[in-house]
Structure to design on (262 residues):
């Protein structure tokens, strides 16, 4: 998609995903069956309801195989890259992401920046020594570069940042969309199934959707989000955690889609 936002193009991209979803993906095809007719839009589904649905969210032609591939919920590094850019984080600085498990990924995207995982303080590890060993790679990356972007929930950042003394740290808070809209603090917006789908714009303080990668539309009082670039899993009409009473609008300053209170 080009740099300038076009509502018509955005809508077409959404329609394309919806066509694929109903035509090729069991989870959405079943919505037609349940409704007894062809629906125009996917039903709004709370993100939490996607747990355990990996098989049904992949196209018939490319089913999910838990024995052959990693979890579908690891996330696409390009989503985080775009969320960080939106939130005003420096580019090309190594990115350390706080996660509950290590991830074999050396770069956030094929084009960079370098990437490492820091285990969350509550991540399941046998002991602190093991945690230290697992974190050493990411901490080494930051130390060598002399700087790092560290992404995580506030309590995790508070626990981990002291380990990065001597490193110029750009801490980026990860939060759910309700918190982002309520507090409009700097940060990026994450949902366990959609991944990073929005960020707080440092200029206006509003929660901007990553519109290149996600579509959002009202679903009753809620906001339903569709991932425009992801093919496995296909995510259409997902209500992110915390978006049950949030709406969509155009930012009065930037003209691009935001998530906001009603
Ligand atoms: Zn704005």
């Amino acid at each position: 998609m080009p740099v300038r936002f076009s509502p018509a193009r955005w809508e077409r991209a959404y329609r394309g995903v919806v066509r694929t979803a109903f035509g090729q993906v069991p989870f959405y095809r079943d919505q037609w069956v349940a409704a007894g007719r062809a629906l125009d839009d996917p039903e709004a589904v709370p993100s939490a309801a996607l747990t355990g649905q990996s098989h049904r969210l992949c196209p018939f032609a490319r089913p999910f195989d838990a024995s052959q591939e990693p979890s579908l919920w690891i996330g696409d590094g390009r989503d985080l890259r775009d969320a960080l850019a939106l939130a005003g984080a420096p580019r090309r600085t190594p990115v350390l992401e706080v996660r509950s498990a290590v991830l074999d990924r050396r770069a956030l995207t094929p084009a960079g920046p370098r990437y490492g995982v820091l285990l969350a303080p509550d991540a399941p590890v046998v002991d602190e020594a093991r945690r230290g060993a697992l974190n050493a790679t990411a901490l080494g990356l930051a130390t060598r570069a002399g700087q790092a972007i560290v992404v995580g929930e506030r309590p995790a950042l508070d626990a981990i940042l002291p380990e990065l003394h001597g490193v110029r740290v750009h801490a980026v808070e990860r939060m759910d969309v309700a918190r982002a809209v309520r507090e409009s603090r700097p940060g990026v917006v994450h949902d366990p199934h959609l991944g990073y789908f929005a960020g707080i714009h440092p200029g206006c303080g509003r929660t901007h959707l990553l519109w290149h990668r996600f579509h959002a539309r009202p679903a009753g009082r809620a906001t339903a989000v569709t991932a425009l670039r992801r093919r496995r899993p296909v995510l259409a009409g997902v209500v992110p955690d915390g978006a049950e009473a949030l709406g969509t609008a155009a930012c009065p300053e930037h003209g691009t889609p935001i998530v906001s209170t009603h």
Notes: The helical segments are 7-24, 26-35, 77-86, 128-145, 154-160, 177-183. Residues 7-24 form the longest helix (18 residues). Residues 201, 204, 206, 208, 251, 253-254 surround zinc ion (CB under 6 Å). The chain has a mean pLDDT of 95.
